[in-house]
């Protein structure tokens, strides 16, 4: 039995109803703390504002309906797309209908099991490089772990997608420009997702500039790869697979502009999310030394896991899943009713916004035992197993679920395990406060102290 550590940080919620304008004001500051406390117990909450009619859906039956049973009737909301469009164009992350089906028919084969096995050595190399990069920082002083996990996750994406390490000149510039883009994204655009009218969601020049810079660099990578494919010299990585796979229904391959949209998406969806999940997982381990020791013991038993062995890193998997539950990197997403619907006992008109909040669903008090407690052991309990099926959507669910979920569930445990084998993590001087930016981040970073872990006898 592992003793639970302190309750992990959770932003204070809005109490009572309050005015719509107060909600919008709070929302612009921080989406999570603007949400009502009621969302941790309600099955559904209706919100009518001056520019919006929305329903936050926590009832597992509604989540199932929207994501799994009838996804085509609940397309992605254009409000959400608007915030991401300068960077992602019309990629699979924001498109709908036939375009989206075509994109997924090409992308999905690149993330099948066999392909992940092929990508594994690149992931492993990025992990080892990440462990080495942390060595000079492991002197017991406070460091912000987020830039470090970003660096590792970005390296994984570049190595698996384009067979280049983060030290490559273009990769390094893309990584840099992404940092700028993340900083430049005002809350309001992310929250375009939920409540704001179009005029309030216009992009700043900085957002547009950083997006243009990133897309220009990705264009260079895609053009060079197209030439290598034509010359028969392209490495067999994810980019080559995606660029050479025809849509099985139409026979069409991605055009260069389509490929730029997708690469920007893989980079954003793949590295921001992984970085966020790893940073929160390390913080949770720092506050729960018993789990950290269990993880380090497991890691010492599997010092250089191969693809098959990652499956047996059960402590690392359980910790990573629990971190994704408490701190889901994509904390909310929004769908839209294509036609009028009855949701529970309420009438939802065509165009109503449906908010699926993994943040609230994963901490719902009527579903989970001890929802706010960090307990990787919960996945072995009946409640944990039921909730994993019905109330756990860190990668979304159904046809529109994250195509990189399998990739992430290898990458995350692999990196956690390697880091816990090399270092001991302790909490820094200040506790992080979760805020929703492009992904779920610490308001002022996530402070941790690292020291080298003595090898076990
Ligand atoms: C811990 C890591 C990750 C998490 C938590 C995560 C989470 C998610 C979630 C929740 C969605 C659905 C978003 C929505 O419905 O609005 C999504 C979509 C997507 N993710 Fe991931 N993701 C992760 C890693 C990756 C990786 C490694 C890749 C690819 C390299 C990737 C590529 C995508 C793409 C292309 C989509 C759009 C799918 C669609 O709409 O059809 N993700 N991801």
Describe the protein.
InterPro entries: Cyt_P450, Cyt_P450_CS, Cyt_P450_E_grp-I, Cyt_P450_sf, Cytochrome_P450_Monoox. With 457 residues, the chain is of the alpha+beta class. The chain has a single domain (20-452), classed as Cytochrome p450 (Orthogonal Bundle). It is 51% helix and 11% strand. The chain has 18 helices and eleven strands. Strands 1-2-7-4 form a four-stranded mixed beta sheet. The protein has a three-stranded antiparallel beta sheet with strand order 3-11-8. The protein has a two-stranded antiparallel sheet with strand order 5-6. Helix 13 packs antiparallel against helix 15 (314-326) and helix 15 (314-326) packs across helix 18. It is globular and about 55 Å long. The site of protoporphyrin IX containing FE has 23 residues, from helix 12 and helix 18.
Mean pLDDT score: 91
- Quote the beta fraction: 5-15%
Overall form: globular
CATH topology: Cytochrome p450
- Name the helix and strand elements from N-terminus to C-terminus, one letter apiece: HHEEHHHHEHHHHHHHHHEEEEHHHEEEE
Structurally, how many domains make up the residues? Answer: 1
Summarize the structure.
This protein is of the alpha+beta class and 457 residues long.
SSE topology sketch:
Layout: H1 20-29, H2 31-34, E1 44-49, E2 52-57, H3 60-69, H4 78-88, H5 97-107, H6 113-134, E3 142-144, H7 145-162, H8 169-184, H9 187-190, H10 205-231, H11 238-244, H12 256-287, H13 289-301, H14 307-310, H15 314-326, E4 332-336, E5 341-343, E6 346-348, E7 353-357, H16 358-361, H17 382-390, H18 405-422, E8 423-427, E9 434-436, E10 440-442, E11 447-452
InterPro entries: Cyt_P450 (IPR001128), Cyt_P450_CS (IPR017972), Cyt_P450_E_grp-I (IPR002401), Cyt_P450_sf (IPR036396), Cytochrome_P450_Monoox (IPR050196)
Pfam family, one: p450
Family: Belongs to the cytochrome P450 family.
